Amino acid sequence: MFGQLEHELDLNVPASEAWDLFGTLQIGKLVEQELPQLFQKVELTEGDGGVGTVLKLTFSPGVPGPASYKEKFTKVDNEKRIKEAEVVEGGYLELGFSLFRVRFEVIEKGEDSSILKSTIEYEVKEEHAGNASLVSVQPVATIAELAKNYLNRNKTAQQAK
């Protein structure tokens, strides 16, 4: 069984600024610092932020879904501003999923605006189809809102200088 969930959020910053956050490891650091209710830890276990980078995500107690998993960056396209990560160990794979991929795409909208499109793609084995209900767009929506607030704060700080 294959499924896909999407979330879009307008950002009041140029696509290049949004990509400076999402195209690097900076988003992981920000998430760990600013979202302790969602993430207990975001650890870099391998790589430098490019394709092949592996992060271990540990969720805070009480967050629905898996307690932790490792994800690997399978695509980092700086021209198209797309980053994809797939779960490679633990988490959803232990719940009968054969694929769990998160994609962040920064789409240029205008000179000073962009859209952050977040997509979750998953494939779950038929005998575990009930676990598809564990997949939620809420974590990526929360990350998108955090990023928007962070980018807006930085924009305001830059304008004040």
From TrEMBL:
Boundaries of every Bet v I/Major latex protein domain copy: 3-129
Q: Where are the transmembrane segments?
A: none
Question: Do the record's keywords include Nucleotide-binding?
Answer: no
Name a GO molecular-function annotation: protein phosphatase inhibitor activity
* Signal peptide residues on this chain, from the entry's feature table: none
Write out the entry's keywords from A to Z. Answer: Alkaloid metabolism
- Top-level taxonomic group: Eukaryota
GO terms under cellular component: cytoplasm; nucleus
* Entry-linked Pfam families: Bet_v_1 (PF00407)
Question: Which CDD domains does the UniProt record give?
Answer: Bet_v1-like
**Does the record carry Iron as a key word?**
no
Q: Name one GO biological process term.
A: defense response
| Sequence similarity | Belongs to the BetVI family.
Q: What is this protein called?
A: Bet v I/Major latex protein domain-containing protein
The organism encoding this protein is: Clitoria ternatea (Butterfly pea)
